[in-house]
Write a structure and sequence with these properties.
Layout (H helix, E strand, L loop, with lengths): L1 H5 L11 H4 L5 H10 L4 E5 L6 H9 L3 E5 L12 E3 L1 H4 L11 H18 L4 H4 L6 H10 L6 H16 L3 H9 L10 H18 L4 H7 L3 H36 L5 E4 L7 H12 L3 E7 L2 E7 L6 H6 L7 E5 L2 E7 L3 H17 L12 E5 L6 H8 L12 E7 L6 E3 L3 E7 L5 E6 L13 E12 L2 E13 L2
Parallel strand pairs: 1-2, 2-3, 4-5, 9-10, 13-15
Antiparallel strand pairs: 5-6, 6-8, 7-8, 10-14, 11-12, 12-13, 14-15
Length: 475
């Protein structure tokens, strides 16, 4: 949108209403577009690869169609100008793992190059680096592997996001509790900026964040960012209830290779619950909400298990499904949910039997065992050189053997605890554990800790912090 405007075009945009029109390029969404006007050119972004009927309808109306997407084709892909490395390129292509934001960045680069080579001054007056911030925002939030080109986009784009040159980004950073001028990390995108952008699509109008990021009005951006923050708080309350109820349902089912959970839940937030439960159980999880007679929701997977492949084996039960190996959206008749539960678990078990992944409880890959006194400012600085962390480039996990809590940790918030120990030269080292207060280690008894090491930045200061991920009593 931004590039086309700068090139002198006046493009209109629309974002599907997820709850009424479904995901992506659906016929319901297309009906709304064509009711307003018939475009000469229709560009579908992050959707459309499997929308064969919708594309044929546009072509029958005399509309040219371009699809820029990274989702897997379930069968034969659409017949139009298709920019999709998962359809048109080999698996080892260096751009294979780009998400749609990365593909759009490359498309912009190509357009500017053509303009520059043709002598058009816009090819040099517009810089492709102007879009690094949005490319990084999409790349990190969409959970694609942060390797190769994605890593380059994320690393440079995070710096651009921190500079916050767009009024919309400045406002979004502000309401997310990030200090102005702070060095942003992938965690800031995943847990602060991304959720606020996504919240409106789950509970309200998904075009709101697009309006925010395109606006040049500081006051409008601040108003829209505050509204997104409010919607996100509402989403968090709903998400907490859904996650608790869906977790209880999964536990009642006993041990399974994969879970399909279904309840009277808001379809807009079930994807977040699926992600949390997937991480907690270390199993692929689909969480479905109710929409009349339809069960609709999202699935999340663990590394090594391909959700698209598993659901393809259940395709006859599904009204719609699509996505990529780690995340999918689906819908089906509510009466078919019980059958899907069994078929899905079987499909996951078959992948497991092929050696895709050993699902055997929580496995933490300890990269190195260290002692508390070895945790230094220099080590934390060196670890920051490995940023940005993310999908396929995880933050390293260290082990600390024989750690002893000399006093009871302090409980705070929603089941969290913190602890502090004295170091040499008057230094103190802070430990923090999220949602582990229900099973805190005994005081005075040696434990082995699995931890992440990081700087905790707050109000212009940075303090060494150890995040406890899990623990076991020493042997």
């Amino acid at each position: 949108m931004d590039l086309l405007r700068r090139l002198g075009a006046e493009p209109a945009y629309f974002v599907p209403r997820r709850l009424e029109e479904g995901y992506g390029l659906s016929m319901a969404a297309l009906n709304r577009v064509l009711a307003e006007a018939k475009p000469q050119l229709f560009v579908a972004l992050d959707c459309g690869t499997n929308s064969i009927a919708e594309v044929e309808r546009l072509k029958a109306e005399g509309v040219d169609v371009i699809i820029v997407d990274h989702h897997v084709a379930k069968a034969e892909a659409v017949s139009c100008l298709l920019v999709n490395p998962r359809v048109n390129d080999t698996e080892d292509a260096p751009w294979q793992s780009l998400c749609t934001a990365g593909l759009v960045f490359k498309l912009i680069h190509g357009i500017l190059k053509v303009l520059r080579l043709s002598g058009d001054p816009r090819g040099t007056s517009i810089q492709v680096k102007d879009y690094l911030d949005l490319a990084a925002l999409g790349t990190i939030a969409d959970l694609v592997p942060l390797l190769h080109e994605n890593r380059i986009l994320a690393a440079h784009g995070l710096r651009a996001l921190g500079e916050a040159r767009r009024p919309g980004v400045r406002a979004l950073v502000s309401v997310s509790g990030i200090e102005p001028g702070a060095v942003l990390s992938s965690v800031d995108v995943s847990y602060r900026l991304g959720p606020r952008i996504n919240a409106s699509g789950r509970l309200a109008d998904a075009s709101l964040p697009l309006q925010l990021l395109l606006s040049q009005s500081e006051s409008d951006c601040q108003r829209d960012a505050e509204l997104l923050d409010q919607i996100n708080r509402e989403r968090q309350e709903i998400d907490k209830r859904v996650t608790e109820e869906a977790t209880a349902q999964a536990q009642a089912m006993g041990e399974r290779a994969g879970y399909v959970l279904h309840g009277d839940w808001h379809p807009g937030v079930v994807g977040i619950a699926a992600g949390k439960i997937c991480r907690a159980l270390d199993r692929p999880v689909i969480v479905l909400g109710k929409e009349g007679e339809v069960a609709k929701g999202s699935g999340r997977s663990v590394p090594g298990i391909n959700l698209v492949e598993a659901l393809t084996a259940c395709a006859d039960l599904l009204t719609t499904f699509g996505g990529h190996p780690m995340a999918v959206g689906i819908s089906l008749n509510a009466t078919e949910v019980e059958i899907l539960r069994e078929r899905f678990a079987t499909a996951i078990a078959e992948q497991k039997a092929k050696g895709a992944l050993v699902l055997d409880g929580r496995d933490l890959d300890i990269v190195h065992w260290i002692k508390s006194h070895e945790i230094s400012e220099r080590l934390l600085d060196d670890l920051e050189l490995l940023q940005p962390y993310g999908e396929s480039n995880p933050e390293p996990i260290f082990g600390v053997r024989g750690f002893v809590f000399d006093k009871a940790p302090t409980v705070f918030g929603d089941g969290n605890f913190r602890h502090q120990i004295a170091m040499s030269a008057g230094r103190r080292l802070n430990f923090i554990a999220w949602r582990l207060a229900s099973r805190m280690p005994e005081v005075g008894r040696a434990v082995d800790l699995a931890v992440r090491l990081q700087w905790n930045r707050w109000q212009g200061r940075k303090i060494p912090q150890v995040e406890i991920l899990d623990w076991r009593y020493g042997t």
